[in-house]
Amino acid sequence: MSQPARRRAEPADGSSAAARLWGRLIDPALWVPSRHDVLGRVYQVAMFARLSLGFHAVFVDLFLVLPRATNPGVVWGVAAGVLVWTVVISLVMMRPSRRRPGAFVADALVTFSLVAVTALAVEPGGAELSLAGYWLVGAPLYAAIFWSTWGGVASAAIVSSALFVVPAHANVQRAGITFTVLLVAFCVGILITQIRATITERDAERSKMAALAERERLSRIVHDGALQVLALVEREGPTLGPRGSRLASLARECESQLRIHLQDRDVTGVDVDESVDLASTLAMYSTAKVTVSTMAGEVLVPRSIVEEIEGTLQEILLNVEKHAGPDTEVWVLLDQEVDDEVILWVRDNGAGMAADQARRAAEQGRFGIRDSIIGRISAIGGSAILKSAPGAGTEWELRIPTDVE
Q1: Which residues does UniProt assign to the signal peptide (predicted)?
Q2: Domains in the chain with CATH codes
Q3: Can you list the pairs that 187-192 forms with residues at least 24 positions away whose Cβ atoms lie under 8 Å?
């Protein structure tokens, strides 16, 4: 009973290798690009084109070039080489992890060799385009997809140079295919560059939409939970005495900060030369003790200037927190009287200071006013004027040009 069972198992084991190979060939994962392989389908089109051109080259070599060849063995060798290398490089291109610079350099060198040996197989004129025929465009095509324009053109130049290794074989057809290969590599490279840019923009937009959706979800959660609790503390706190009043004040400030952070006022991630809305940027600094007032419309200012204004405002608010008193309130007013200048007033109702106090602070090494405020605004071509008196609070008038290049 056991002996026949073993004999029946042997054919199954013997055919398992072929079955596994067939299973791999029909596995959709081999032929369907991963969603992370953004250029996978482009490589698939290039593979199909190269395989078709390879069969065309083999057909021409065996039925048209072979009868007049002086060395038939070279013709057969090139035909086999074209088919084998097409399969090998296609398997390499199927996996993103295998698409490395060395693979594309090897592809160009193998193609160069198969084109160059034409002179060993036929007399001048025996194969107008070389034994590789139009198949030689495959290597520059792959390189253009991987490296974009100049990588593809460089590969095309290397491959096409093999057509002129033996001057006697040079002709008009070879000059024509050289121009065609260079043009194809250049155009495909530009197309791939545009595709990559489009994919990057799409991914950035998707990330932004996902972030906004998450922010809206968090806003609902915070509104239904934390904000209601903070509002309750703010309303009921003063009835609990001095400590309750302090808790109410802190609750009001936390509520204001939460509302600001949940708004869509993100201005990061842009180029320094791109214009952004200064009014929206300043609104981020609104708290229970800081009131920000701006015009209703946008105030578009280069990002580099906005960064300097933000740094200056942060220094002013830090000085208020340190020196003006715990209950000090701040008012920030943005105005624009002319198109090429904005005016920012920052006023508080704190302790204030005399004129000689600011001078003595600088002499003592406290350079916040001189460097972080006046120096920062002066560096971008603006002016900063300080108005203050003991017991009368402090006011800054910042005039900043918006057309600084």
Answers
A1: none
A2: 33-201 (no CATH), 271-405 (3.30.565.10)
A3: 188/141, 188/144, 188/145, 188/152, 189/144, 189/147, 189/148, 189/149, 189/150, 189/151, 189/152, 189/153, 190/148, 190/149, 192/39, 192/42, 192/144, 192/145, 192/148, 192/149
